[in-house]
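Extended Data, record Maleylacetoacetate isomerase
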Amino acid sequence: PILYSYFRSSCSWRVRIALALKGISYDLVPVNLLKDGGQQFSAEFKAVNPMQQVPALKIDGITLSQSLAIIHYLEDTRPNPRLLPQDPKKRAQVRMIADHIVSGIQPLQNLSILKQMGEKKMEWAQNCITSGFQALEQILQHTAGRYCVGDEVSMADLCLVPQVSNAERFKVDMGPYPTITRINKALLELEAFKVSHPSQQPDTPAELRA
């Protein structure tokens, strides 16, 4: 497999966690979203992903983009360890939380939107994350065990950790979100979340390495 990734991309990080949890080794091709006016806009990368976004994964003779589509494929083809619970209610909760983050929070504060916000980008990002986290904190109070849904790591957790990292980068006060904070801390102790962390990637700038 070949993963096209950017060290700081939260969407790429979700997929890196999934690959690590499932023990899938891969070659990494860095796509720098800032350098050369954005390497994702090159003709070479547009041929890989017409949406000109990371991540993209070449695997089993196909090329997939969109982080959740990639994770669902890995789940379908390499089911261990399971990232979607078998219980239909828990499975729906996992998908709900994942969608809440990947549709309701992350796209509103990603690079392409922030570029259009100019000087207001920090305030905009904080507002998007805060409103999303207010809802997410309430949801998790009903679904969480050790992790987002019960005590097993799921697709929801793969979305949570990168989003909390974004919140910290945009200096969001995490005080009002004790459940999110507790789950995030527990997940960051797991090896798959450590090795996939933005501070540990081949394309991480020296000053941001852990």
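Summary. Residues 2-81 form a domain with the Glutaredoxin fold (CATH 3.40.30.10).
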